[in-house]
Amino acid sequence: MNQVILIHGMPDKEDYFDPSFPRHTDAHWFPWINEQFKTKGISLIMPEMPEPYEPKYDLWKEVFEQMKISSETILVGHSCGAGFLLRYFSEHPELNPKKIILVAPWIDPEPHELDTGFFDFTIDSSLTNRTSLVVFYSTDDEESCVKSAEIILEALPNATYHKFDNKGHFTKGDLGTEEFPELLEEVLK
């Protein structure tokens, strides 16, 4: 394994356009994990998804499909990015990456934030037969994210779940650090 693809989540529109906020791929634990991978010879690809503050599935899919996915690829998605990966691989059973890691997955379980159809899909219950699926979630995250994790757990009981009580949405503010050693360990398994 020498390639990881990381898909970021959905920032607030105000934050996205505020020049004092870092780009989404330069925030939270993303730079730290990138440095850790470099020291191990692992290439990390972190595409900037279009209009992430108001994501449209077809636009994200177009960017994502520019990347080569093989049986050695590990994918990591955070929040809305995790939901994107879950939808994409549910809709593409011909693709079998090595591992998909969902961090604080969000699939808008009571559709109210996104009216773009971004999460109009059914989770493929055979996904865990095709790839190793790992979910990191915390019980002190936003209610919609906790509910998203519960929906995924019900649909994919054979996935590996890492449940925490103190990581919030796995952002720098919630973690209290820019480091995410549990994710690094999971990628390196």
Report on this model:
The model has no long low-confidence stretch (mean pLDDT 92). The protein is globular and about 40 Å long. The chain has a domain at 74-112 and 133-189: 3-Layer(aba) Sandwich (Rossmann fold). It has 189 residues and is of the alpha/beta class. The protein contains eight helices and six strands; from the N terminus they run βααβαβαβαβαβαα. It has helices spanning 13-17, 30-39, 57-64, 80-91, 127-130, 143-155, 172-175, 181-188, and strands spanning 3-7, 43-45, 74-78, 99-103, 132-138, 160-164. The longest helix is centred in the C-terminal third of the chain and has 13 residues, at 143-155.
At a glance:
The chain has helices spanning 13-17, 30-39, 57-64, 80-91, 127-130, 143-155, 172-175, 181-188, and strands at 3-7, 43-45, 74-78, 99-103, 132-138, 160-164. With 189 residues, it is of the alpha/beta class.
The top level CATH class name of the domain at 74-112 and 133-189: Alpha Beta
What is the number of strand segments? 6
Contiguous uncertain segments of 5+ residues: none
User: What value does the average pLDDT take?
Assistant: 92
Dominant shape: globular
CATH homologous superfamily caption of the domain at 74-112 and 133-189? Alpha/Beta hydrolase fold, catalytic domain
Helicity range of the residues?
A: 25-40%
Strand residue content: 15-25%
- As for the CATH topology of the domain at 74-112 and 133-189, it is Rossmann fold
Q: Helical element count?
A: 8
> What's the architecture of the domain at 74-112 and 133-189, going by CATH?
3-Layer(aba) Sandwich
User: What's the gyration radius in Å?
Assistant: 15 Å
Distance between the termini: 10 Å
Given helix and strand content, the structural type is alpha/beta
**Major sheet characteristics:** 6 strands, parallel
Note the run of SSEs as H and E. Answer: EHHEHEHEHEHEHH
| Widest sheet, order of strands | 2-1-3-4-5-6
